[in-house]
Design goal:
It is a single chain. The chain is an alpha+beta fold. The protein has two domains: 5-20 and 77-166, PH-domain like; 25-73. 46% of the residues lie in helices and 27% in strands. A hairpin with a 2-residue loop joins strand 2 (78-82) and strand 3. Helix 1 (26-45) packs antiparallel against helix 2. The radius of gyration is 22 Å and the shape is elongated.
């Protein structure tokens, strides 16, 4: 489970709890390999201690910026669907959160490009009744199953409202 239990209301149940697909880490990992290879190659071909030190400091800065930061971003971002709301949390230094009550969601769709189909992820497109219009959640693992689960929750929510009104 990705989300902390303390963020849930009493009696609220988690239906889906996930983070962005690990495909978000492919580019940072490739960047790490290239930076380390460049650092080693520079150390082998340059016979100047100061130049080597400067090169490795540059590699370190680039690793922090292009590898560690995206990894931390991936680790601190979460997407959770409960039986009451959609919860998104992200941010490393400044945490941001967005909750959408299920009753405000008017449509759920998904988008898959070719790479997404191969990797089994996609973009979840949630339309709500707020002024924001649409919320796009990129690179959700098993996006089709997530969309089905969310639609089942919405159907139960709206179906329950219809039955409640019919009884009066």
């Amino acid at each position: 489970m990705v989300i902390s239990q303390k963020l849930l209301n009493p009696g609220e149940k988690i239906v889906v709890s996930t983070r962005t697909h690990p495909k978000a880490l492919i580019l940072p990992i490739l960047t790490l390999v290239v930076l380390l290879a460049a650092g080693v190659a520079f150390s082998v071909f340059v016979d100047n201690g100061t130049a080597r030190l400067v090169a490795w400091l540059l590699v370190l800065v680039l690793v922090l910026w292009r590898v560690l930061w995206p990894l931390l971003d991936w680790m601190t971002s979460s997407y959770t669907i409960t039986d009451r709301r959609l919860i998104t949390r992200n941010g490393i230094i400044t945490r941001r959160g967005h909750d959408i009550p299920l009753g405000r969601i008017s449509d759920v769709a998904y988008e898959l490009d070719l790479i997404d189909r191969v990797l089994g992820c996609g973009t979840l497109v949630i339309s709500d009744a707020s002024t924001h219009g649409q919320v796009l959640i990129y690179d959700i693992p098993q996006v089709e199953a997530t969309q089905r689960k969310l639609n089942e929750l919405l159907h139960g929510l709206h179906g329950g409202e219809t039955r409640a009104h019919e009884g009066h």
